Amino acid sequence: MGLREDKKQRTRREIADTAMRLFATRGFDHVTVADVAEAAGVSDKTVFNYFPTKEDLFYDEVPAREEALRQAIRGRRPGESILAALRRLQNGDCPRMCSPGFAVFARIIEESPALQAKELEVMARFSAALAETIQQELGVDERDARIAAGLLVSVHRQLFRAARKQALVGTHGPAAVRRLRGDLERAYQLLEHGLGGLGQAAPVVGQVHSA
Question: Which of these, 160, 170, 165, lies nearest to 59 by C-alpha position?
C-alpha cells in the first residue's frame, strides 16, 4: 500500500472510530454527520467522500466483511467445500461477536430503526457478492448461485442476530462463544444434509467445530 492510500485508510478509520464513539454515547439517531465531521476535525464533504450515508459510518466494516466472504470461497483449502470454508470463517468470528465491545454495537442497532433497515440492505449486498463469487468459482447456473447465496446469507444473518440477542442480555465470554458456535453448527448441518433434519436434536456443544 502506498503512502497516499495508507493515509486515506487512516483517515477513514479515524472518522469511523470518532463516529462510533459519538453513537455509543448519544445514540445513532441523535448524531449528525456534521457532529462527526466536527469531532474528527474534517469537513462534512470529507466524511461523505468516505461514507455515502450516516448508516455507512456505523457499518464501516461492511466492505471488509464482504471481501472476507469472497476470499473464504476463493481461497478455500484443497478439497474444501464452500459450506466448510464459510463455516470456518464464521466460527472464527464468534469470539468477536461475544465480546463486551460487541454489546455496545448491538445496543446501538437495537435503538435505531434506521440501522435495522440498513442491516437488510447489507445482507442483500452480501447475498449478491456471494452469488457472483459462487458462480465464478463453481461455474453453476446463475439461478442456482442466487439460491445458494440466499441460504448462506440467511445463516449469516441469523448468527448476527443471535449474537446481538446474547449481547443485549449481557451474555458474553467462552460460554456465549460455545452457544453461538453450536447454533452455527446446527445451521450448517441443515444446509449440508437438507431440511429433512429439521426438528432433530441439535449437536452436542462438545462436538462443535473449533475455529
Answer: 160
3-state secondary structure of 141: coil
DSSP H helices, 51-197, are: 54-58, 62-74, 82-93, 100-110, 113-138, 142-168, 174-193
Question: In which element (H, E) is residue 17 found?
Answer: helix 3-26
Is 32 in contact with 51 (CB distance < 8 Å)? no
Q: Do residues 16 and 60 make contact, with C-beta atoms less than 8 angstroms apart?
A: yes
Mean pLDDT of 91-107: 94
> Quick one: which of 181, 179, 186 has its CA closest to 203?
186
* Tens digit of each residue's pLDDT (9 = 90 or more) over 112-145: 999 999 999 999 999 999 999 999 999 999 999 9
How many whole angstroms separate alpha carbon 72 and alpha carbon 69?
5
Collect all residues with Cβ–Cβ distance below 8 Å to 6 and sequence separation of at least 6. none
* Angle made by CA atoms 183, 189, 190, in degrees to the nearest 5: 95
In the numeric block, which cell numbers belong to residue 24? 455509543
